[in-house]
Amino acid sequence: MKIMGNKRLFFLLLGMILFITLMGLTLGGRTGLTWPEKFVKDTISTAQGWLYKPAGSIAGFFRDLRELQVIYRENKELKKTLIHYAEDTQHLNDLEAENKRLKIALAFTEQQKQSNNYKYHIADVVAVSPDAYNHTITINLGEKDGIKPNMAVVTPQGLIGRIQTVTPFHSDVQLLTNLNDTDNNTKAISVTVRGKETSSFGVIESYEQDKQSGKDYLVMTKVEQADPTHAIAVGDTVITSGLGQVFPPGLMVGKVASIGVGEFNITPRVLVEPFASFTHIQEVFVVEAPVQQ
User: Fold this and answer.
1) How far is residue 9's CA from residue 254's CA, in Å, rounded to a whole number?
2) Would you list the domain boundaries of the chain?
3) Does domain 119-288 correspond to CATH entry 2.40.10.340?
């Protein structure tokens, strides 16, 4: 049966070949087709169309798949490039900001050399206390660098606090925002008004924040005005006087924001807006004043 089946298939194929050959010979030199020839041609064309469309779809699928893989690899490389670009941009911005701060610090130290004989130790802030009731920062200078408790700490803008505790390699700085006249752990600041040093003196011993504006203010009390004609006025610049033996004289503190009535209506209560910011501090200067003989 198998042999007979193969013979039938052979004769069928042979017959189709002969038929197609005869059709080609018959068509030679003719422009018209007979209906059997038309039927055969349409049948073959239809079969070719059925075969061509799936084959084209399959080929297109694999082509699209290859293109998708290429696009995926390109997107992956683009993402890497964008990440590197963002990192480089951030690094550049950080370097530019640091360069700007250091230029300001350099100009500040050059200016201080001309105004006093203090030594300024520049330090980086390495930590900030998370305690809302203990406003301190930690700097990367300590005993080995000659840092001692109660040394004044400033930024190029102005006074920000004092050294509180010292270890061999680090120091904690108590900020002025921690000032409290009921806390013995804080140190009051003896101040005066620049240009009126011989007539106006006071003490800053507390800090408050305006709830509406969010501005920081240092409260100046015990104001003595030897010369009423040179009384403290709004806008005056407040500096350290050096009378308290903690903060050396001449350090910038802030400007007079308002003048109100003090205790018992005897002396005024002055609000001083500090020059320095107490947030996002990155570099500071520890002030080493010469020892008084």
Assistant:
1) 109
2) 35-115, 119-288
3) yes
* SS3 track for the chain: CHHHHHHHHHHHHHHHHHHHHHHHHHHCCCCCCCHHHHHHHHHHHHHHHHHHHHHHHHHHHHHHHHHHHHHHHHHHHHHHHHHHHHHHHHHHHHHHHHHHHHHHHHHHHHHHHHHCCCEEEEEEEEEECCCCCCCEEEECCCHHHCCCCCCEEECCCCEEEEEEEECCCCEEEEEHHHCCCCCCCCCCEEEEECCCCCCEEEEEEEEEECCCCCCEEEEEEEEEECCHHHCCCCCCEEEECCCCCCCCCCCEEEEEEEEEECHHHCCEEEEEEECCCCCCCCEEEEEECCCCC
Mean pLDDT per 10-residue segment, the chain (293 residues): 58 66 55 61 62 58 74 85 81 74 70 75 92 88 94 93 95 94 87 84 90 88 75 91 87 93 79 93 90 58
Instruction: Produce one character per residue of 174-204: b if its CB has 16 or more CB atoms within 10 Å, e if not.
Output: bbbbbbeeeeeebbbbbbbbeebeebbbbbb
Answer whether 0.85 is exceeded by the pTM: no
Look at residue 20 in the predicted model and tell me its pLDDT: 63
Residues 258, 219 contacting (CB under 8 angstroms): no
Give the phi and the psi of residue 232 in degrees, each rounded to 5. -65, 140
Per-residue model confidence (pLDDT) at position 1 = 47
